[in-house]
Write a structure and sequence with these properties.
By secondary structure, the protein is of the alpha/beta class. The protein is built from four helices and nine strands.
Length: 213
Protein backbone atom coordinates (compact mmCIF):
# COMPACT_ATOMS: atom_id res chain seq x y z
CA UNK A 1 0.00 0.00 0.00
CA UNK A 2 1.23 3.47 -0.86
CA UNK A 3 2.09 5.49 2.24
CA UNK A 4 0.18 8.72 2.64
CA UNK A 5 0.20 11.37 5.38
CA UNK A 6 -3.20 12.08 6.90
CA UNK A 7 -3.59 15.85 7.05
CA UNK A 8 -6.08 18.11 8.76
CA UNK A 9 -6.79 20.08 5.59
CA UNK A 10 -7.37 17.04 3.39
CA UNK A 11 -9.56 15.20 5.89
CA UNK A 12 -11.59 18.26 6.83
CA UNK A 13 -12.24 19.42 3.29
CA UNK A 14 -13.10 15.96 2.00
CA UNK A 15 -15.25 15.07 4.98
CA UNK A 16 -17.28 18.26 4.78
CA UNK A 17 -17.63 18.44 1.01
CA UNK A 18 -20.94 16.59 1.00
CA UNK A 19 -22.36 18.26 4.07
CA UNK A 20 -25.66 19.91 3.25
CA UNK A 21 -27.50 20.18 6.54
CA UNK A 22 -25.92 23.50 7.50
CA UNK A 23 -24.23 22.15 10.62
CA UNK A 24 -20.80 21.58 9.04
CA UNK A 25 -20.51 18.46 11.22
CA UNK A 26 -20.02 14.93 9.93
CA UNK A 27 -20.61 11.83 12.08
CA UNK A 28 -19.36 8.32 11.36
CA UNK A 29 -20.48 5.06 12.94
CA UNK A 30 -18.42 2.16 14.22
CA UNK A 31 -19.97 -0.84 12.48
CA UNK A 32 -17.75 -3.96 12.39
CA UNK A 33 -18.41 -6.12 9.31
CA UNK A 34 -19.63 -9.67 9.83
CA UNK A 35 -16.76 -12.11 10.13
CA UNK A 36 -16.47 -15.06 7.78
CA UNK A 37 -14.91 -17.11 10.57
CA UNK A 38 -16.71 -19.34 13.03
CA UNK A 39 -15.10 -20.92 16.08
CA UNK A 40 -16.10 -23.22 18.89
CA UNK A 41 -17.48 -21.76 22.09
CA UNK A 42 -14.54 -21.20 24.43
CA UNK A 43 -16.08 -18.38 26.48
CA UNK A 44 -19.57 -19.53 27.45
CA UNK A 45 -21.57 -16.81 29.15
CA UNK A 46 -19.07 -13.98 29.44
CA UNK A 47 -19.21 -10.39 30.68
CA UNK A 48 -17.21 -7.85 28.67
CA UNK A 49 -15.97 -4.98 30.79
CA UNK A 50 -16.12 -1.50 29.33
CA UNK A 51 -13.24 -1.32 26.87
CA UNK A 52 -10.39 0.94 27.99
CA UNK A 53 -9.29 3.40 25.26
CA UNK A 54 -6.58 6.09 25.16
CA UNK A 55 -7.93 9.61 25.72
CA UNK A 56 -7.65 10.61 22.07
CA UNK A 57 -9.53 7.47 20.96
CA UNK A 58 -12.23 7.89 23.64
CA UNK A 59 -12.97 11.42 22.45
CA UNK A 60 -15.98 12.18 20.27
CA UNK A 61 -13.61 13.62 17.64
CA UNK A 62 -12.01 11.21 15.18
CA UNK A 63 -8.23 11.28 15.55
CA UNK A 64 -5.51 10.88 12.93
CA UNK A 65 -1.74 11.21 12.84
CA UNK A 66 0.11 13.65 10.59
CA UNK A 67 3.32 12.93 8.72
CA UNK A 68 5.31 14.65 11.48
CA UNK A 69 3.68 12.56 14.21
CA UNK A 70 1.11 14.91 15.73
CA UNK A 71 -2.32 13.53 16.56
CA UNK A 72 -5.00 15.86 15.23
CA UNK A 73 -8.75 16.06 15.73
CA UNK A 74 -11.53 18.30 14.46
CA UNK A 75 -14.75 19.31 16.21
CA UNK A 76 -16.46 18.94 12.84
CA UNK A 77 -15.50 15.28 12.32
CA UNK A 78 -17.10 13.12 15.00
CA UNK A 79 -18.00 9.58 15.88
CA UNK A 80 -21.75 8.99 15.80
CA UNK A 81 -21.73 7.35 19.25
CA UNK A 82 -19.45 7.57 22.26
CA UNK A 83 -16.40 5.55 21.17
CA UNK A 84 -16.04 3.55 24.40
CA UNK A 85 -19.68 2.48 24.30
CA UNK A 86 -19.65 1.76 20.57
CA UNK A 87 -16.40 -0.22 20.78
CA UNK A 88 -17.66 -2.27 23.75
CA UNK A 89 -21.13 -3.04 22.37
CA UNK A 90 -20.01 -3.93 18.85
CA UNK A 91 -17.07 -6.03 20.08
CA UNK A 92 -19.38 -8.05 22.35
CA UNK A 93 -21.76 -8.67 19.46
CA UNK A 94 -18.96 -9.67 17.10
CA UNK A 95 -17.37 -12.13 19.54
CA UNK A 96 -20.78 -13.69 20.19
CA UNK A 97 -21.51 -14.11 16.48
CA UNK A 98 -18.13 -15.68 15.77
CA UNK A 99 -17.95 -18.03 18.76
CA UNK A 100 -21.56 -18.81 19.63
CA UNK A 101 -20.79 -17.58 23.15
CA UNK A 102 -23.07 -15.19 25.02
CA UNK A 103 -20.80 -12.17 25.45
CA UNK A 104 -22.64 -9.29 27.12
CA UNK A 105 -21.27 -5.84 27.99
CA UNK A 106 -21.27 -4.89 31.67
CA UNK A 107 -23.32 -4.50 33.79
CA UNK A 108 -24.33 -8.18 33.78
CA UNK A 109 -28.13 -8.34 33.34
CA UNK A 110 -28.86 -12.00 34.18
CA UNK A 111 -29.61 -13.68 37.51
CA UNK A 112 -26.95 -16.36 37.10
CA UNK A 113 -23.35 -15.07 37.06
CA UNK A 114 -21.14 -15.19 33.95
CA UNK A 115 -18.68 -18.02 33.48
CA UNK A 116 -15.92 -15.68 32.35
CA UNK A 117 -15.05 -12.00 32.36
CA UNK A 118 -13.26 -10.26 29.49
CA UNK A 119 -11.17 -7.13 29.99
CA UNK A 120 -9.84 -5.33 26.86
CA UNK A 121 -7.23 -2.60 27.34
CA UNK A 122 -6.38 -0.72 24.17
CA UNK A 123 -3.01 1.03 24.02
CA UNK A 124 -3.35 2.42 20.49
CA UNK A 125 -6.40 2.98 18.28
CA UNK A 126 -5.28 5.43 15.64
CA UNK A 127 -5.26 6.27 11.95
CA UNK A 128 -1.48 6.28 11.75
CA UNK A 129 0.64 8.21 9.28
CA UNK A 130 1.73 5.02 7.49
CA UNK A 131 -1.72 4.57 5.98
CA UNK A 132 -2.98 1.95 8.44
CA UNK A 133 -5.43 1.99 11.30
CA UNK A 134 -3.48 0.59 14.24
CA UNK A 135 -5.24 -1.27 17.06
CA UNK A 136 -2.86 -2.50 19.74
CA UNK A 137 -3.18 -3.60 23.35
CA UNK A 138 -3.95 -6.58 25.55
CA UNK A 139 -7.01 -8.54 26.60
CA UNK A 140 -7.65 -10.75 29.60
CA UNK A 141 -10.14 -13.57 30.10
CA UNK A 142 -10.66 -14.67 33.70
CA UNK A 143 -12.84 -17.50 34.97
CA UNK A 144 -15.57 -16.52 37.42
CA UNK A 145 -14.82 -17.56 40.99
CA UNK A 146 -11.08 -17.85 40.45
CA UNK A 147 -10.98 -21.54 39.48
CA UNK A 148 -10.42 -22.35 35.81
CA UNK A 149 -8.33 -20.97 32.99
CA UNK A 150 -7.14 -17.36 32.99
CA UNK A 151 -5.74 -15.94 29.76
CA UNK A 152 -3.53 -12.95 29.02
CA UNK A 153 -3.13 -12.12 25.33
CA UNK A 154 -1.70 -9.28 23.24
CA UNK A 155 -3.09 -7.96 19.95
CA UNK A 156 -1.42 -5.89 17.22
CA UNK A 157 -3.78 -5.24 14.32
CA UNK A 158 -3.17 -3.10 11.23
CA UNK A 159 -5.90 -2.39 8.67
CA UNK A 160 -5.22 -0.40 5.47
CA UNK A 161 -7.02 2.93 5.19
CA UNK A 162 -8.26 3.17 1.62
CA UNK A 163 -8.00 6.93 1.18
CA UNK A 164 -7.52 10.18 3.07
CA UNK A 165 -11.11 10.57 4.34
CA UNK A 166 -12.90 10.23 7.69
CA UNK A 167 -15.18 7.56 6.24
CA UNK A 168 -12.21 5.40 5.35
CA UNK A 169 -10.83 5.81 8.88
CA UNK A 170 -14.17 4.69 10.32
CA UNK A 171 -14.31 1.70 7.96
CA UNK A 172 -10.78 0.62 8.90
CA UNK A 173 -11.51 0.99 12.62
CA UNK A 174 -14.62 -1.18 12.20
CA UNK A 175 -12.65 -3.91 10.42
CA UNK A 176 -10.04 -3.78 13.18
CA UNK A 177 -12.73 -4.52 15.77
CA UNK A 178 -13.88 -7.55 13.77
CA UNK A 179 -10.30 -8.85 13.64
CA UNK A 180 -9.95 -8.34 17.39
CA UNK A 181 -13.23 -10.19 17.93
CA UNK A 182 -11.89 -13.14 15.91
CA UNK A 183 -8.81 -13.22 18.09
CA UNK A 184 -10.76 -13.08 21.36
CA UNK A 185 -13.24 -15.72 20.19
CA UNK A 186 -10.37 -18.16 19.65
CA UNK A 187 -8.28 -16.96 22.61
CA UNK A 188 -5.62 -16.13 20.06
CA UNK A 189 -2.51 -13.99 20.26
CA UNK A 190 0.78 -14.17 22.16
CA UNK A 191 0.46 -14.46 25.92
CA UNK A 192 0.00 -16.88 28.77
CA UNK A 193 -2.64 -19.17 30.25
CA UNK A 194 -2.87 -19.92 33.97
CA UNK A 195 -5.02 -22.76 35.26
CA UNK A 196 -6.17 -22.11 38.83
CA UNK A 197 -7.83 -24.59 41.19
CA UNK A 198 -9.94 -24.12 44.29
CA UNK A 199 -8.51 -25.23 47.65
CA UNK A 200 -8.75 -28.96 48.12
CA UNK A 201 -8.80 -29.86 44.41
CA UNK A 202 -5.07 -29.86 44.02
CA UNK A 203 -1.93 -29.17 45.98
CA UNK A 204 -2.38 -29.55 49.76
CA UNK A 205 -4.76 -32.52 50.42
CA UNK A 206 -5.52 -31.17 53.92
CA UNK A 207 -6.52 -27.69 52.78
CA UNK A 208 -10.23 -28.24 53.45
CA UNK A 209 -9.86 -29.82 56.91
CA UNK A 210 -11.06 -27.72 59.89
CA UNK A 211 -8.45 -26.33 62.33
CA UNK A 212 -7.51 -28.53 65.28
CA UNK A 213 -8.10 -25.76 67.85
Amino acid sequence: MQRFPLSLAAVTLTGLAACGDGTDVQRYIIDPPTSTQLSGDQLGAAELKEVSLPDYAASDEIAWQTETGEILQSSKILWADQPVRAFTVTLARAVSEISGSSVIPEPWPLASPPQNRIDVRVEKALAANDGYFRLEGRYFVSAEGGAGSHHTRAFDIAVPIEDDTPGSIADAASVAITLLAEQIATLGGPGTTIVATTPGTGGDPFADLPPLF
